[in-house]
Write a structure and sequence with these properties.
By secondary structure, the protein is of the alpha+beta class. 32% of the residues lie in helices and 31% in strands.
């Protein structure tokens, strides 16, 4: 596919991210005491703001006429044609509120993830962090922009012992398992490990050059696709814990994802293996 074929999809992703951001900022500003929340599974918090954002995204994508299938954390929607658009399998990977826990407690490190893949290949992404007024957009063949301006990030030339990295682990059982097995011993090699209970927020920091890398354990592709695409298009890396390429055509949980700038990324992979 030529790069000029992605423009309509990118516009749809941008519009959907904008609609979701408007919904979420309105709810966030009204105060967390107005949220209705429940657990869709043990430890998996969801609020009515997640659902409202999800519906806003689906509405925009449907009205865009781009077609495809939405694979969301909160719902799956066929936009028409059984997910086939112009002979291509179009799938939208959506996390309508990435960081429900910080959102629900009034902290600002949350965001919206929207990515589109065609025939299993990531080609478009929109990642918004509304409290910071930041929208990161990516398109294969056209590069990465922040709030419409072309993004160029300088290479990190420091070692892992000199930088902070993100560490995102979802669930108490995963924490217990990793701590009990020594699976987090690599953390002692970095200057500092920060956890935000969000994928969107640290991925925005990495892609814009404000953090060197982020490591995710047991995460679905919809949470990381948009940020990983931006980082890769800028010259960074997004791999599994062995340093191997991720199969972005899959929908099941990824055991480990490491996204970062080459020098730090490669040192992390080496440290994780030890």
């Amino acid at each position: 596919m030529g790069s000029d074929s992605y423009g309509a999809y990118l516009e749809a992703a941008i519009a959907a991210a904008g609609a979701a951001s408007d919904v979420l900022m309105t709810r966030f500003a009204s105060g967390v005491h107005n949220l209705s929340s429940w657990e869709k599974s043990p430890g998996a918090l969801v609020t009515d703001a997640d659902i409202e954002s999800d519906r806003a995204i689906a509405k925009v994508l449907k009205e865009s006429g781009c077609g495809g299938v939405i694979i969301s954390e909160e719902s799956n929607v066929d936009l028409g044609g059984g997910g086939i658009e112009a002979g291509r399998k179009i799938e939208w990977l959506v996390d309508p509120l990435c960081g429900t826990v910080p959102f629900s407690t009034g902290m600002n490190h949350w965001g919206v993830n929207i990515a589109m893949r065609a025939d299993g290949e990531l080609v478009v992404g929109a990642l918004a962090t509304p409290t910071g007024g930041t929208l990161l957009t990516s398109e294969v063949g056209s590069g990465v922009r922040v709030n419409g301006e072309k993004l160029i990030v300088a290479e990190w030339d420091r070692d892992i012992g000199e930088v902070a990295v993100g560490l995102e682990i979802d669930g108490q059982d995963v924490w217990r398992s990793l701590l009990g097995s020594g699976g987090l011993n690599w953390v002692t090699r970095v200057l500092q490990a920060n956890s935000f209970a969000s994928a969107a927020y640290p991925l925005m920091l990495v892609a814009t050059g404000r953090m060197a890398a982020v490591v995710f354990y047991r995460i679905d592709p919809m949470h990381v696709a948009a940020g990983a695409l931006a980082t890769m298009l800028l010259g960074g890396r997004a791999t599994d814990g062995n340093g191997d390429a991720i199969d972005w055509a899959r929908d099941d949980e990824l055991p480990m994802v490491v996204v970062g700038w080459p020098r730090v990324h490669d040192q992390l992979i080496e440290a994780i293996a030890q």
